[in-house]
Write a structure and sequence with these properties.
single chain; about 190 residues; mainly alpha; Serine Threonine Protein Phosphatase 5, Tetratricopeptide repeat; about 80% helix; about 0% strand; elongated; TPR_rpt; TPR repeat
């Protein structure tokens, strides 16, 4: 949505929550509209209101976590993603996003465990496989990274990020010749 559409959506949603203050869906939607338009205070308030009306909304907790993540408030994003998982322990996106927050905080082992959990829940989640590979590259575990990134490229063969990182992992593992075809696909 562009700014104009977000502004109109926000105005309409404000009318709805004024008339129906218990409408948790409208509050969550208002939070998302505010978030997209850069209204940080409004987004935070609307997400909080929605969750106070109905805490069992994993997707709203994820949106709230993403809001904090984009603002580099990683501890708050961790808390929001954990709340999503409290209500839906098998939510692959919540596990992946929680792993991303832990990765940004330097808690790489925790990050890997959540990325791996996401791949067990959703075997087609290429981003989660890539994230495990990325952390293993950071840790210098290049052979392990190759395995995870190979899975990522099997799930999403045309994804250039996966190809690039697989090439990097092969180089790190001392197999530069094996890396070349992956780098060439990125070009």
């Amino acid at each position: 949505m562009d700014q104009g559409l977000n502004g109109r959506a926000s105005d309409l949603l404000k009318e709805i929550v004024t008339e129906e203050p218990e409408n948790f869906v409208a509050w969550a939607s208002l939070g998302k509209a505010y978030d997209r338009s850069g209204n940080i205070m409004g987004a935070s308030e609307a997400y909080r209101k929605s969750l106070s009306l109905k805490p069992n909304q994993p997707n709203v907790w994820i949106s709230f976590g993403d809001f904090y993540f984009r603002g580099k408030s990683y501890p708050q994003s961790v808390s929001a993603y954990q709340s999503a998982l409290k209500h839906d322990p098998d939510n692959a996106k919540a596990h992946n996003n929680l792993g991303s927050a832990y990765k940004e905080m330097g808690k790489l082992e925790r990050a890997v465990s959540h990325f791996a959990a996401a791949t067990k829940i959703d075997v087609g989640y290429a981003l989660a496989y890539r994230n495990v590979g990325d952390v293993n590259i950071r840790l210098g575990n290049f052979s392990e990274a190759v395995e995870w990134l190979r899975k990522a490229t099997e799930v999403a063969p045309e994804n250039l990020f996966g190809r690039y990182w697989l090439g990097r992992a092969y180089v790190g593992a001392g197999q530069p010749k094996t890396a070349i075809p992956h780098f060439l696909r990125v070009l």
